[in-house]
Amino acid sequence: MHITPTSYQTTLCELNPNYSIRLYMYGISYIYLFLGVQTPNCIRQTVFDAVSLDYKHVSVITDATAAATPDVHTANIFDMKNIGVVTPTLEEWCQSTEKFIS
Asked: Is the pTM of this model over 0.85?
């Protein structure tokens, strides 16, 4: 499945409701945020949207996201962990998915 935003949709800092409906219809319950700039903005908003929409498995790859300072990044990752988000490094995530690749 490939979802492409149309010219009038803002998808940078939220889990667009139309996408959420499509993901639900396809039975997708895992959301991985692999990279992004500004952990306290777009990454955080998308994560909180996904959790509030009851996605069961939301992950942020911590060393593929960033913020203006390491302290801001760490504080936001801490907040996301507190709402149940899984926060592996890219290496940890790759190791955990090796069993699915054959």
From this structure: no
